[in-house]
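Researcher: I need the complex structure. Ligand is zinc ion. Inputs:
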Amino acid sequence: MKPIDATPWPGELPELVEARAVAVDELMLADRALAMAAADRLRAIERLRRLSGEQGAVGDVRSARARELAHRSLRAEVAVALHVSERAADALIGLAASLHDPLAATLEALDEGRISERHARILVEDTADLPAPDCMRLERAALPLAQRLAPPRFRGRLRELRERMLARTAVERHRRARDERGVWVEPGRDGMSWLTAHLPATEAAAIDDRLTRLARRQGARASEERTLTQLRADLLSDALLGATEGEQAAIVPTVHLTVPVLALLGHTNEPARLEGHGPIDIETAARLTAHAPGLTRILTHPITGTVLSVGRESYRPSAELRRWLHVRDGHCRFPGCGRPAARCDLDHTTAWAAAHGETRHDNLAHLCRAHHTLKHHSSWTAHQLDPTGTLIWRTPTGHIHVTEPAHRIEGVAESPSPGSAGRESRRRPPDSAPPTAPHVPSSTTAPPSPPGPPVPPDG
Ligand SMILES: [Zn+2]
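Model: Output:
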C-alpha cells in the first residue's frame, strides 16, 4: 500500500514522505477495520433478531400481534444497547436482515472491508421494495461500483442501473411510496424546527399537535382504514389545499410550555422548555404565556403542597397529580424514547391490580402507547427506586437501563399514607420549610404572578 513513486516536495525530507505514507496506510487499515466491525455488528443484530423471532418474550409467536410485540421488544433492546433511537435501531435491524438475505454478497464485501456500511445501507434502501431475484441482479451489477465510488455518487449510479433494469411501472412504485406518506417535525437550532418548512418551534409543535388530534378524531371512525401517519399527511394537504372540513376548525392545538417564573421576571437566565422540543428563549415564552390560546402554561415555582398521592382509593390520578407528573417526566420514560408526555399514558409501575400498586407519584410514570403495551405484554420490567422518579428498566436479556425524569423534584420524600386522601390534609402549611430544589413545578393558566405567595394550582 506504500506509494510507488512518492516524490518529496522540493526541500522536503524523504523520511517525512515515508511517514505520511505510513499514516495513510494506517488510515486505510482502520477504515477496513471499521467496515469489518460494522459487518460483525450487523451479524450480531441479525442473530438477535432470529433468536427473538423464535423464542420471543411473548408466548405465541404465530399470532401477528405477538410477532409485532416481539419485534418492538427487539427494537427497544437494540436501541438501548447501542444508545440510538428506536427508529435508528429499526433501520439497523432491517439492514441486518436484508444483508443476511437476499444481499449476502454485500455483507461479504463489507466483511472484507471492500465497501463501507454507508454503501451497504444505500444498496439495501434502494432495493428494499424489490423481489429477491431483482435485488440480487441489481446487487451483482452495483457492487463493483460501490467499491470505487463515494456514497452519493454510488447512489446516483445505482438508481440509473435500477431504472434501466426494472420493468415495474412507475404507477405501481408511486402507489407503494404513497403509502409511506407522513408529516414529521424535527427540532432545529435557535428555537426553530423543521416541518420541511423552517418554522419557529412553537408554531411547528402546534401544527404537529393539531394534525395528531385531527388524525385521531378521523381515525376513530369505523370506516377509516388509513393509518394515523397517513391521516396526518392527508390532513396537512387538505388544510393547505383549502379542503374544508367543518370539524378541523374546532380543534385548537395544545402546546406545553414550562417557564421558570423567576426567569420570566428577569431574575435568572434559565430557558423555558417547549415540550417535545427542548429549551426556547424566554422572550418567546413570555409572549406565549401572555397571549397564545390553547397553550398549557406550566410555571415552575418554588411552592409546596401538591397532592402527590391518592393511595389505593382511586385508579385514576387526580388532575393535579397528572399535571405534576407531566412536568416531572416530560416525555415517555422508556429508555431512549422522547415522545412528549402529552401523547403518553400514565402507567402504574407496579400494576394497580397488584397488592402494592398504588396510585401515587412514585408508582406512576408516563409511557407512550407503544412502550406501555410493550411493558405489559413482554418481559421488559421497571421499578421506581426513589421518590424522585428514577426508573430502573430490565430488558428481556437481563440488561439494566436507568432513565431519569426531565425534572428532578426534590422535597417529596415524605409520602402521605395511603387511604387518607383529601387535598387539604396533603398540603403543607404555607409557612413550612421550602423544598430542597429550586423548582417544584405547579401549573396554572393564569398570567405569571411575582415570586412570593405560591401560585395556586388550578382545578
Ligand atoms: Zn415511548
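Model: Summary of the prediction. Confidence is low (pLDDT under 50) at residues 54-58, 293-313, 411-459.
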